[in-house]
């Protein structure tokens, strides 16, 4: 049998049975609604079916990317919200520190004013204008006050600036921003501790200055009460203590200091005080007595005239009478007596100028 005859005797494969031919057949999609409604179909060629599958895969991938990006954006928005909350908390802390600093500054002002007052009281400077430049005689208090003032200025120069923080958060939103907020939190904690420490130091300095002010005030009041000014310029004719009597040969106790001066010479208060007696006393003649406080009293005797009244307040150096020769006296002079806690004292132990 020849090849041609063989080919004639062999039946060819039907086209519909060929695998390649079967793959080229169109796809039919049938939609069959319920309730007896008519069905309808969609016929898709293999080429269109392939395009549809590819497009579906691309759309699914795109949708997956959108979902991933949405989750990431939501996470970043949550982190941004948290950072904004931290930023608001820091702004609140900064405002609280600034408000607290007003109290600290007020304390510092009062401490400085008290320091100036004390230095004026003891005659260290001439007035409030010179107080800042005058050298302090209280180095511990003044240095502490100045140091506190410097610390306050330095502390508030280190407060982090909040300008533009929101825009920075919107653009960075990462580890750098977290580190920045963490560093600022640590800085705020340190700043808060520094200010509170300064407040405690100022409180202690204020207490020390108040104690010093009281001590200085009491001391100045005591010094103002000491009869240290000569009541009249004259010659000491008889000192305090035992002496030979000018009226005989006997020895007697002389209760004061005799200052000889011309008749009518003004007699002045030896210290600030209240007039408690004016009048005549046996042997002493015309007398003025002054209570100076702190246990001091003085008496001015043998006056020719009295120029003050009881309960009158005299400053140191105010005129109270005139030198005379009243009472038991051998000539014009002032008999000056000093008492402390009711006991006679030697006037020359207090007179300085």
From TrEMBL:
The superkingdom of the source organism is Bacteria
Q: Name one GO molecular function term.
A: metalloendopeptidase activity
Q: Which residues form the M23ase beta-sheet core domain?
A: 253-347
Which InterPro entries does the record associate with it? Answer: Cell_wall_metabolism_enzyme, Dup_hybrid_motif, M23ase_b-sheet_dom
Segments for region (Disordered): 1-21, 126-150
Keyword Cell membrane recorded: no
Q: Which ranges form a coiled coil?
A: 188-219
Which ranges does the record mark as transmembrane? 52-75
Sorted UniProt keywords = Coiled coil, Membrane, Transmembrane, Transmembrane helix
User: Would I find Repeat among this entry's keywords?
Assistant: no
| Name of a matching Pfam family | Peptidase_M23
Q: Which CDD domains match?
A: M23_peptidase
Biased composition annotated in UniProt, kind: Basic and acidic residues: 1-20
Q: What is this protein called?
A: Cell wall peptidase m23, putative
Organism in which the protein naturally occurs: Heliobacterium modesticaldum (strain ATCC 51547 / Ice1)
């Amino acid at each position: 049998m020849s090849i041609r005859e063989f080919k004639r005797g062999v039946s060819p494969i039907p086209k519909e049975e060929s695998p390649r031919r079967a793959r080229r057949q169109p796809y039919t999609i049938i939609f069959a609604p319920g309730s007896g409604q008519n069905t309808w179909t969609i016929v898709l060629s293999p080429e269109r079916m392939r395009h549809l599958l590819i497009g579906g895969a691309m759309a699914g991938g795109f949708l997956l990317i959108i979902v991933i990006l949405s989750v990431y954006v939501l996470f970043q928005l949550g982190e941004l919200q948290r950072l904004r909350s931290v930023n608001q908390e820091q702004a609140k802390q900064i405002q609280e520190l600034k408000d607290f600093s007003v109290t600290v500054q007020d304390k510092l002002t009062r401490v400085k004013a008290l320091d100036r007052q004390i230095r004026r009281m003891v005659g260290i400077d001439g007035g409030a204008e010179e107080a800042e430049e005058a050298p302090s005689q209280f180095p511990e208090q003044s240095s502490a006050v100045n140091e506190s003032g410097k610390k306050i200025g330095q502390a508030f120069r280190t407060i982090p600036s909040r300008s533009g923080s929101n825009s920075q958060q919107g653009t960075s939103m990462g580890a750098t921003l977290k580190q920045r907020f963490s560093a600022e939190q640590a800085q705020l904690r340190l700043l808060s501790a520094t200010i509170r420490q300064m407040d405690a130091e100022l409180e202690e300095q204020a207490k020390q200055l108040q104690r010093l002010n009281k001590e200085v005030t009491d001391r100045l009041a005591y010094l103002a009460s000491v009869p240290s000014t000569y009541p009249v310029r004259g010659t000491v004719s008889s000192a305090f203590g035992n002496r030979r009597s000018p009226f005989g040969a006997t020895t007697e106790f002389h209760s004061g200091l005799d200052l000889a001066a011309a008749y009518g010479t003004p007699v002045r208060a030896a210290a600030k005080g209240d007039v408690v007696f004016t009048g005549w006393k046996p042997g002493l003649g015309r007398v003025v007595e002054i209570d100076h406080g702190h246990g001091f009293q003085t008496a001015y005797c043998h006056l020719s005239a009295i120029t003050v009244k009881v309960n009158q307040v005299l400053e140191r150096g105010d005129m109270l009478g005139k030198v005379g020769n009243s009472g038991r006296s051998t000539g014009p002079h002032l008999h000056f007596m000093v008492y402390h806690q009711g006991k006679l004292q030697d006037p020359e132990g207090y007179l300085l100028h």
